[in-house]
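Z., the sequence and structure:
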Amino acid sequence: MTRIPLEATLKTRPPARPFTRPFAVALTATVLLLAAACGSSEQGSTVPAGDSGRAAPAPAAPAAPGEAPRQDPGEADTAPTGVPEARDSDPGRLSTFALDVDTASYGYAKQTLTEGRLPDPAQVRPEEFVNSFRQDYAEPDGDGFAVHLDGARLPGGGAALVRVGLRTRGADPETRRPANLTFVVDVSGSMGEPGRLDLVKEALHKLVDQLGPGDQVAIVAFSDEAETVVPMTPATSRQELHAAVDRLAVRDSTNLEAGLVTGYGEAARTFRPMATNRVVLLSDGLANTGDTTWQGILDRVKESAGRRITLLCVGVGREYGDALMEQLADNGDGAAVYVGSAADAHKVFVERLVTTLDLRARDAKAQVAFNPSVVESYRLIGYENRALAAEDFRDDTKDGGEVGPGHSVTALYRVTLRGGASGQLATATVRWQDPDTRGPAETSRALDARDLAGSVWEGPSPRFQVTVVAAAFAEHLRGREEAFGAGLRELGRHADRLAEATEDPMVAELAGLIRRASELG
């Protein structure tokens, strides 16, 4: 992977500016020069972006002649159901968002469909459906990201789907950094429902058995108040830790604020600079005592959290406080997952332990620049809660997403193409900070219109097609019929075909969920 001096990049590739036609031509030429230097038109570039040479955020530019005015991401309309309205965006501005590795929305939808209920449309987040599935992206050579960009035309040829894929390098479990884990466990009355506290305890037992000699664990329990059940203890003291988990029992109301304040306090007290320091909240998210707002709760723990302590929210339960858990994760330097079964717990705490616990990038953000001479309009599928202003991309004080080793992050765009247009279609750039030094870096990749596959269902890789099926299914559950020109029955047929092609049991499960939704609808 070629590393380019920042000074040269700032002269030739200013990704924080909206496209104008002269700029689009200049940028295309620059990308071609960089590609030639790398030996391939598909080779990405990584740019160290230290504070001493960081580009200033670009000011909001006036619209170019013939283009609509720039719209702030926060101005999007919202449908009465709480689902943001599907509206194409003017390509004269950039699409900027914080990366998101949450999968709780898909996990909870899977649980509700299995129980014979359709999920609440407002709790369906397409990006979390898409990011629940394995992708085919190559890993980067270093500790940053590899950027993948591809696409395919929709029926009729006037529109296309563009996939932006980001991937971090995987980690060997033997070489991962030690972990300081503070479990904050909900033992309120609502956790007495079968499948809640018993599932949490099973997950904790699994995790304790997976930890190594350098790891440490603390356990905090909360109901109307919080108590430290076990202070930070070496993971090798497994008998003591298992006994503490077994003692967890249901009590009274849900003071989630007290639990997190106590948990973050313990994590800060025992903070280790060279370890992964993480608070793991296990709860149904149904807070009813103390401050029940994510803003108020995070404000109470911000001093402790500022010491590079990340948060993992693990949701459980038939009735689940999705909004609170998601906002805690998104705004607390963390991620949210949903565990609905013992198999789910095994995936999170055994199969994906290193990805769950370790960290590759902090405050990671993506910015996609569309060429208005090729793209008439675009729509990012999902990520409404993660939208950023264009000038926030290089403002390292603005919160991004935390990404672990071996993680894939995918964004899918529906773009309307200009008739007969050719040339560079889009450039995707990702910016992140090193987990330890906080030093920022960037890498980019471009996509040409001629590289679009002729059909979504025939040319692209099976994993691209799985992405389309997952996103379209989410759009259907949000009340948008015929997403990407395919109804539920057609999506189910594609999912069955792709399950056979990929030999992936999760894709087969997706096919079953689509059939179930079709029956319930």
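Residues 21-38 form the longest helix (18 residues). Confidence is low (pLDDT under 50) at residues 1-43, 50-78.

Let me know what you think.
H.
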